[in-house]
Design a protein that fits this description.
Blueprint (H helix, E strand, L loop, with lengths): L6 E5 L2 E3 L19 E2 L1 E2 H14 L11 H20 L1 H29 L16 E7 L6 H9 L8 E8 L3 H11 L5 E6 L7 H10 L5 E4 L5 E2 L3 H12 L3 E5 L2 E3 L6 H23 L11 E4 H6 L10 H11 L3 E4 L4 E3 L5 H22 L3 H8 L1 H33 L7 H25 L3 H5 L3 H4 L1 H16 L20
Parallel strand pairs: 3-7, 5-6, 5-8, 6-7, 10-13, 11-14
Antiparallel strand pairs: 1-2, 1-4, 8-12, 9-14, 10-12
């Protein structure tokens, strides 16, 4: 058993619980650089279960409430009964509801794509820059640790006002060594070593970093990230003019290895549509943002107030965006992007997308534990937006594969299996998505999205494979985090 006055450390780059005790009762590592620090057992416990303990109704630790199971059972039973009693009316009503929902989702995407208004950001230039904490969770990232530190060294922000924390698992010896080497002689960068314990997730590591963050503002970067040098100053300016309700600003994520494969090219177009068109539209309407997993900037006090990240949700970003809205806060977007690396193989993409869809299912189930209360907290417009943008996206992930098969069958069949309106809706969805990819070229400055656009209808059905894998994992491995490997494909070189 680990007592709360102990600290779990790595000694000589080996996991150890029994090194020599220091004057303060903590454990003194004998083999770590001065850039490394350790985590107390109490802080680790809070990082793992703080949200589940203090706000259990907002935590994904528990998958389903019995009331949700009852509601699902009643809904299924009601649909079966109605289908037997009046099959024509039942299927007609279900068809109408789905048609309206998908039509509304397509319309929202069309409006976002037609806006063609790039996000412009002013840059803060205060006399005294506030301390800014940067949290960088690293796991099996020894090959990119130096690149990350090089990218962070290019930030246009006073070094004395930076509090950078590289969050590394204690059993990841290679990454610890690489992180310590990269952080050597950089007093503003600290390597925080986290004892291995469940859940083994990124949000748990972020909570550890948040506990001792010194900054008034905090942001998250992934191991492969290359943020624009002026991103922090743009975020600071947004907070200065955004008012007290502005809790978070999201920078756009762009892909710099789009040419590596067909999958990476489709991924890049998908990101461009999401971060250059959809999120800016939601921000302009002051609706909740399903945040990206990186390059989001927070007011530290507000982030702590809402409970930090949910370590049991494998898409902690989207969950946090909606949790901020439920607490009465809003999110916005800024212009300076972060360059990221996309998966280049179908297998890597499938594992990552399975985790994303599983996390979105977790998030939606948490939001729907008390739909009336959730709508009251975030506002009716925000609640409807969440269903149209977030929930409809989930349904689409499950439906793309079967719908593609149905459409192909209908096109080849001599019989009228679908109505004209069905074909109009399907073609409209494809055309709007292609239009969105093309307009994203103008916003991101990358022609790769244009090359991806014509074959998007072949890409979407792959999401259904990930969706059904995610549903399986939701019940049998709900908190399993499938790690995406980085540093796989060639990217533009960094100059330190």
């Amino acid at each position: 058993m680990i007592h709360h006055n102990q600290k779990v450390v790595v000694s000589n780059l080996r996991i150890s619980l029994m090194p020599a005790m220091g004057m303060d009762g903590g454990v003194r590592p004998t083999g770590l650089n001065e850039t490394a620090s350790t985590v107390s057992a109490a802080a680790l416990e809070d990082a793992c279960d703080g949200l589940a303990r203090t706000k259990p109704h907002l935590s994904a630790k528990r998958r389903l409430y019995w009331t949700q199971l009852l509601a699902i059972a009643v809904l299924i039973a009601g649909l079966v009964w109605a289908a037997r009693q009046a099959p024509g009316v039942t299927f007609g009503a279900a068809y109408f509801v789905l048609f309206v929902l998908f039509g509304a989702a397509i319309l929202i995407r069309l409006v976002a794509a037609a806006s063609l208004s790039p996000t412009l950001s002013r840059l803060a230039a205060p006399e005294r820059f506030p301390t800014y904490t940067i949290l960088c969770p690293l796991y099996r990232e020894a090959n990119v640790a130096h690149d990350l530190v090089t990218a962070l060294s290019r930030l246009d922000y006073p070094t004395a006002a930076l509090d950078i924390r590289l969050l590394v698992e204690a059993d990841d010896i290679d990454t610890i060594a690489a992180a310590q080497s990269a952080a050597a002689e950089k007093p503003h960068i600290e390597v925080v070593i986290i004892p291995p314990c469940a859940p083994r997730t990124k949000p748990k590591a972020l909570n550890v970093g948040l506990a001792e963050a010194r900054g008034s503002f905090v942001c998250v970067y992934d191991a492969e990230d290359r943020p624009h040098p002026q991103q922090l100053r743009a975020a600071l300016a947004a907070f200065e003019q955004g008012g007290e309700r502005l809790a978070c600003v999201q920078a756009p994520l762009s892909i710099d290895n789009a040419g590596a494969s067909w999958i990476s090219r489709q991924f890049a177009a998908e990101y461009a549509i999401q971060f250059r068109e959809m999120l800016p539209l939601l921000a302009r309407l002051e609706l909740p943002l399903p945040l990206g997993g990186t390059s989001n900037h927070f007011q530290t006090d507000v982030l702590r107030q809402v409970g930090g990240w949910d370590p049991y949700n494998v898409t902690e970003d989207a969950d946090l965006g909606y949790r901020l809205a439920r607490a009465g806060y809003r999110s916005d977007v800024i212009g300076p992007p972060t360059m990221e690396e996309a998966p280049v193989t179908l297998n890597a993409w499938l594992k990552q997308r399975t985790r994303w869809i599983k996390g979105h299912l977790q998030t939606w189930l948490v939001l729907m534990r008390d739909p009336v209360g959730c709508a009251r907290q975030m506002g009716l417009a925000a609640f409807i937006s969440m269903q149209l943008v977030f929930a409809t996206g989930l349904v689409a992930a499950f439906a793309h594969g079967p719908l593609a098969l149905i459409l192909l069958t209908a096109l080849l069949s001599p019989y009228d299996l679908l109505t004209a309106s069905d074909f109009v809706l399907a073609i409209s969805g494809y055309c709007v998505a292609i239009f969105a990819a093309l307009t994203a070229c103008a916003l991101s400055g990358s022609l790769s999205h244009a090359w991806a656009a014509p074959t998007m209808p072949l890409y979407w059905p792959l999401a259904s494979i990930a969706a059904y894998c995610a549903l399986f994992e939701l019940f049998f491995r709900p908190h399993y985090w499938s790690k995406t490997a980085h540093g796989i494909s060639a990217r533009p070189s960094l100059v330190s």
